[in-house]
Specification:
By secondary structure, the protein is of the alpha/beta class. It has a single domain (about 5-115, about 130-310), classed as UDP-N-acetylmuramoyl-L-alanine:D-glutamate ligase. The protein is built from nine helices and 13 strands. It has helices spanning about 40-50, 65-80, 140-155, 170-175, 185-190, 200-210, 250-265, 270-285, 295-310, and strands at about 5-10, 15-20, 35-40, 55-65, 85-90, 95-100, 105-110, 135-140, 160-165, 180-185, 215-220, 225-230, 235. The strands form two sheets. A nine-stranded mixed sheet has the order 5-4-1-8-9-10-11-12-13, sandwiched between helices. A four-stranded mixed sheet has the order 3-2-6-7. A hairpin with a 5-residue loop joins strand 11 (about 215-220) and strand 12 (about 225-230). Helix 1 packs across helix 7 (about 250-265). It binds adenosine-5'-triphosphate and magnesium ion (MG). Adenosine-5'-triphosphate binds near residues 242, 244, 252, 276 and 279.
Length: about 300
């Protein structure tokens, strides 16, 4: 059997984390109990999830040719992600965050968005897209998205979008090229540019997403589960009940798992259920990447859930 290949295009960031007993209340000098460097970013985390779940993951993206860029690239390669098209640009600076975290989990985050990373996407090897089975894009590199999603559609591959907060022009450019648009609540709000407070609001917003050209439109709602619309109607998948330790990256991992499942040929309800299980298991462990479950853990988890629903 060929391994399912998923190309993930979009954002990568590096978190530099300093755990402290207490967050600083004033300027001064403080001692951290540890120091960690962890990669993040929607598409980058999704690629790590695909690799962790046994897929053949490729990450296509950009960072500066600096220590943060090299660290991110190496970490993803260590997870088994193909980073051939993870390009580091000389003179550009990577996106990084300094995160101070206290013993009780409070955080102070300082983000630097990076500078000098070119938007131009002509270097992407679009002729190799045919080797993939699915494409996942986030909404942080519009020029890249348009090229890659367009090529994926021409090749007949399913495309998945991680719909986080973006501008009106980004939605206009990208949504017509997307088959499966899966939003966060904040992302869906940003798309309709008005409050989305009730299920009726959510369904109306998802209808609008479908009118933009997407076959399937979904919103993930953390522990409240996922609503989606497709040509067969309105559907709902509950979040799995788990002991939640850390929800970092749950959405990113959900998207990676969903794209992998589609690439494997799973139908939408099965892919949503699979992604929900992967994301729920991730929530039971620390770390956006370190907490991602392996494939056999997900299979065992889903089998247990299945038994719970057997008729008595
Ligand atoms: N507390 C939880 N318990 C069980 N499953 C969860 C929980 N939080 C998230 N999930 C699963 O992960 C999916 C995505 O989570 P969520 O909607 O929070 O993503 P998000 O808003 O994009 O956040 P982020 O991208 O920052 O992780 C949910 O639809 C659900 O299946
Ligand atoms: Mg998200």
């Amino acid at each position: 059997m060929t391994t399912t290949r998923v190309i993930c295009i979009g954002n990568t960031t590096l978190d530099r984390v300093w755990p402290l007993a207490q967050l600083p209340a004033a300027a001064g000098k403080y001692r951290a109990s540890d120091y960690l460097e962890v990669g993040g970013g929607m598409a980058a985390n999704a690629a790590v999830a695909v690799a962790r779940l046994g897929g053949d993951a490729a990450y296509w993206g950009r960072a500066g040719e600096d220590s943060a860029g090299r660290t991110m690239r190496q970490e993803m390669a260590d997870y088994g992600v193909d980073v051939t098209q993870f390009r580091l640009f000389a003179g550009a600076r990577s996106s990084t965050s300094a995160i101070l975290v206290s013993g009780d989990g409070e955080r102070t985050i300082v983000n630097f968005r990076g500078t000098g990373i070119p938007d131009e996407a002509g270097w992407l090897p679009l002729d190799t897209i045919r080797s993939a089975h699915a494409v996942l894009a986030d909404i942080r590199w519009i020029e890249g998205d348009v090229k890659v999603l367009g090529a994926a559609r021409a090749a007949g591959l399913p495309t998945v979008l991680d719909g986080e907060i973006a501008t009106a022009s980004a939605w206009t450019a990208v949504l017509p090229l997307v088959d499966h648009a899966i939003f966060s609540e904040a992302g869906l709000r940003s798309f309709v540019d008005q409050p989305v407070a009730t299920d009726a609001d959510r369904i109306a917003a998802l209808r609008k997403v479908r009118l933009a050209g997407c076959r399937m439109a979904a919103v993930t709602r953390g522990g409240d589960g996922t609503i989606w619309l497709d040509e067969t109607g309105i559907h709902f998948q509950m979040a799995f009940t788990v002991d939640v330790v850390d929800t970092t990256g749950a959405g990113d991992v959900f998207h990676g798992a969903y794209a992998l499942a589609l690439g494997e040929g799973q139908r939408i309800p099965d892919a949503i259920r699979f992604a929900s299980a992967v994301a729920a298991l991730k929530c039971t462990r620390r770390g956006g990447r370190a907490g991602i479950p392996a494939r056999d853990e997900v299979a065992a988890f889903l089998a247990r859930q299945g038994n719970l629903h057997m008729p008595r």
